[in-house]
Each structure stands twice: as C-alpha cells, then as structure tokens.
Specification:
Blueprint lengths: L5 H18 L14 H5 L12 H10 L4 H13 L3 H14 L4 H38 L4 E3 L2 E2 L4 H38 L4 H14 L2 H14 L6 H15 L6
Antiparallel strand pairs: 1-2
Helix pairs in contact: 1-6, 3-4, 4-5, 5-6, 6-7, 7-8, 8-9, 9-10
C-alpha cells in the first residue's frame, strides 16, 4: 500500500496531484466541465440529452422494459441531470452491454469516469493536507530523552491519529487511481470502435497518463500525431511524449 508512512512518501501524492491537475488538464486547456469528456471539450460539445425526463419516470420505463436500450439511455441521462453519477455509470454500462459500439455513449461513460476521478483526486488532495496538518508536530518533535539511553514512548493517541490520516490519504489516492483506470478502459473500447478518430487517441493518452500507464499514454499520443500531424495541439503532444519518455529513462547510477 502507498503512503503507509506519510513523512516518507508524501511527495508521491503531490506528484500524482500535479499530474492530475497540471499535465493532464492545464496543458491542453481542459478541466472546466468535470462530466464532459476531453473530446467533448476540445470539440466544444457536451453530452446529449433525451429530454427532461424525471428519474422516477425513467426508472418506471426501465421496470416495464428492462432490456430496452432506449429506456436505459434515458435513465442514465436523467440520473446524470440529477447528480447521481455513480448510478448513471452503472446504467450506462447496462446500455452499452446492449449497444457496445455506440461511440457517443462510450464517450459519455468515459467523461463520467473522468469527472468522478477529478472529484476523487480533490478528495485525495484534501486528505493529504489534513494528514500533513495532523502529523506536523509529531514529525518535528524528537522523542523525549529520559537518560541512560531511554526515551519516552510515542503518544499512542498521536500514533492513532497519524495512522488514520495516512489511511485516509491512501484510500483516497487508490479511489482516484481506480476511476482514472476505468476511464482509460472505456477509452480503450472507444478507440477500438473509432480507430481513425484522433481526438479519441488524445483522450486515451491523457486518461492513460493520469492513471499512471505511461507506455500506453506514449503510444496513444503517437497515434494521435500520426492521425493529425498538423493539429494545433501537436506541439504540446510532442512535448508530452518527450517528457514521458524522459521519465521512463532510468537515472544514471552513481
């Protein structure tokens, strides 16, 4: 498990958060709309709407026709509009089991995962700040010397607080990473359904980068450049590839 000792490993949380909020979004001018996919924002679009249908009415439609793709799509949209993102993801996955090549729905699902991951990353950041505050004093205070080589045992209350704080950071980090991995998996499916779409490759690359899959991120960035070599974002993409490759190169020993 990561971050079992906050003082030893805290820097990796900040590296992760810098990736989430810096490289993945700021570099491409993305991040204003959490539930929109990267491609939607690049293209200036957003999710589709099946009309203003209440969640209760949409649920009733699904109960009457549980295998109706349209009913499931309507329910997912109603849940999103009602802010029930987690259930919307479940319902949209049910829809995609019936319509696995619906690229618009795949795009929407990936956007939902990214929005959830962004929120969880903020939770991780808040947990990190809180943990740093709670253990700050104990990190700086040396054990009390009682003489003859004896020291006062650490305060068990402080130890318990530190343990719980570290646990909260660890759990928040893992949850955010899991959400980014779900987004990456969805973009994999989308790339298989739309292999010639350069925006999908860019979205896959960023999701993979945010989930820590550097090799896949580089490959997807390179496919993007092959499909859209003259795209305005191409210089930024080339810079990202160079940085990711540099990060993969082992430091010289010595």
């Amino acid at each position: 498990m990561f971050f079992t000792r906050l003082r030893s490993h805290a820097k990796w949380m900040f590296v992760f958060l810098a990736l989430v909020f810096g490289v993945g979004f700021v570099g491409f001018g993305i991040g204003a709309n959490q539930n929109a996919s990267i491609g939607d924002l690049l293209r200036g679009g957003g999710g589709t709407s099946n009309g203003s249908v209440s969640v209760s009415d949409a649920r009733e439609q699904v109960q009457k026709s549980p295998k109706s793709a349209q009913a499931l799509r309507t329910l997912s949209t109603a849940l999103q509009e009602d802010g029930q993102t987690d259930e919307a993801i479940v319902v949209l996955n049910r829809y995609l089991a019936l319509k696995p090549k619906d690229t618009e729905a795949l795009q929407e699902l990936a956007g939902l995962h990214l929005g959830r991951a962004t929120a969880l990353a903020r939770d991780a950041q808040a947990a990190q700040v809180r943990a740093s505050y709670l253990v700050f004093d104990s990190a700086l205070t040396a054990p009390l010397n009682l003489g003859k080589g004896a020291t006062l045992e650490p305060d068990p209350i402080e130890q318990a607080i530190s343990t719980e704080a570290n646990k909260a950071v660890n759990e928040a980090y893992i949850a955010a990473q899991g959400a980014y991995q779900k987004a990456e998996e969805t973009y994999d499916r989308l790339a298989a359904a739309a292999p010639r779409d350069p925006n999908v490759q860019l979205e896959l690359a960023q999701a993979a980068q945010q989930s820590g899959d550097t090799t896949k991120a580089i490959a997807a960035y390179q496919r993007f450049l092959k499909l859209a070599p003259d795209d305005p974002t191409a210089p930024i993409v080339r810079q990202q590839i160079a940085q990711l490759k540099a990060a993969q190169t082992p430091a010289p020993s010595g």
